[in-house]
Design goal:
The chain contains two helices and five strands. By secondary structure, the protein is α+β, with helices and mostly antiparallel strands. It has a five-stranded antiparallel sheet. The longest helix has 21 residues, at about 1-20.
Length: about 100
C-alpha cells in the first residue's frame, strides 16, 4: 500500500512538472505603459508579425489593454514595443543597409 502511494505521488509530480514546463513563460518586464502610448503588439505564441500601431488604454499588473481600430486586445507587456522604439530600430536597420550598399 505504501509503495503504491509513493509511486502515485511520483507519477503525479512528474505530470505536474511536465504541465508546468509546457506552459508559456514570459520574461519578467518591469516596464510601465501609460494611457495614450502608441505601441505595436504580437498576439499569439507563434505570431511573428507585429500588429498596430494601437493605443494603450491602461495596464493592470501584467496585462495591457490596447485599442486597435474598433477592437480591444489584451496583451502581455513582453509582446509590446513602443512605436518610437520600433521606429528607431527600423531606421537604424535602414541606415545599416544603406551603408553596406554604399560600401559595395
Amino acid at each position: 500500500m505504501r509503495l503504491e502511494k509513493l509511486s502515485w505521488r511520483h507519477r503525479h509530480q512528474i505530470d505536474y512538472l511536465a504541465r508546468a514546463l509546457k506552459g508559456r513563460v514570459y520574461q519578467a518586464y518591469e516596464c510601465q505603459y501609460f494611457a495614450g502610448d502608441r505601441v505595436y503588439y504580437r498576439t499569439g505564441i507563434r505570431d511573428t508579425t507585429w500588429h498596430g500601431p494601437g493605443i494603450v488604454i491602461g495596464q493592470y499588473k501584467k496585462l495591457v489593454l490596447v485599442k486597435h481600430g474598433g477592437s480591444f486586445v489584451r496583451v502581455h507587456p513582453s509582446k509590446l514595443i513602443l512605436q518610437t522604439r520600433a521606429d528607431e530600430e527600423v531606421n537604424s536597420d535602414q541606415l545599416l543597409e544603406d551603408s553596406s550598399q554604399t560600401q559595395q
